[in-house]
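Q: Hi! Curious about what Aminoglycoside phosphotransferase domain-containing protein looks like structurally. Here's the sequence.
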Amino acid sequence: MTAPADLEFLATLTAVWGFPSGTTITRAEQGTNNQTFMLRQGSLRFVLRVNQTQSAAQIGAEHRILQRLRHAGLPFQVPEPVAAPSGDTVLETAAGPATVCRWIPGVRPDLTGQTALERFGRAAGLLGDEMLGMPPEDGLGDWRVNPLAHPAVPHVGALCRQLRAAEISAERVARLDAVAHRVGQEWPAGGGALPTQVIHGDLAASNVLVDEDTGEVSGLLDFEFAGVGFLVQDMMAALFYSGALETRDWQTRTAAFLRGYASVRPLDAAEADALPRLLLARAVGSALSRAGRWLNGKAQLGEVADRIRKLEDTTHWLDANGGKLRSLAAAGGHG
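A: Let's find out. The predicted structure is below.
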């Protein structure tokens, strides 16, 4: 996909949206899957995104989800798409579908403290509770499918051979192959007992904003991967990317996150039991997703190696602590 690299392209695009010529345009610091820019018009700020992962139809489905959430009375904001003069909230461009949303104030959360983790967990619970019963939109993905089924990686064995040819170590490639095989065998088991609904799909800490003064969650971002999935997958992703599992006091920090989540909706027995399996599947899926981007020329080999290292760490950690995590999750963080 061609990236919109020049200001002339951006100025033309913002003019189509009705922004005046004095609108300032700066590239956003965050964002790896899309081209993202900050727009400033006087005291007003907006976010322009040129999408490299979705079709216009998929973005339209995302926007309908956001519209429902904005009227749900949540204590935090979600993106608000801005319509062009044509009435459309998605415009096709040569570089990909483009959208504009109003800027949401806030800063990235510092999740080293228990209070911040508990707030993050509660926000994840509130979002899941509000999305309960939301009708699936046409074009949404399905997070229930086998995580090994990646469009850019049709066969893990072939990927492993390509990684070896690119001089990733034989030991590391063998680990990826072995864990992927394990996940492929474990994935179908038990899925039918897990509550299913529309989920966010990428509830990482990087997609969370908090109030700079109070630390309360002020916004949840980037619903581009929203789809039908197991409800516990959003909670699992939030925990996985929070960093809570990566410290010596992981039980204390994880308990704080789980208490926040359980204050809205406690996990049931099947969800608590599935948590280690889903965490491992997420780590494999993350490695394969980055490998797919590398195969398509959109990521560096070092990024793939980093994801495989993360997968190795997650595997070792779950082998040692998976049982404790299940018990803590079943107790809602009060173990």
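A: A fun detail: Residues 114-330 form a domain with the Aminoglycoside 3'-phosphotransferase; Chain: A, domain 2 fold (CATH 3.90.1200.10).
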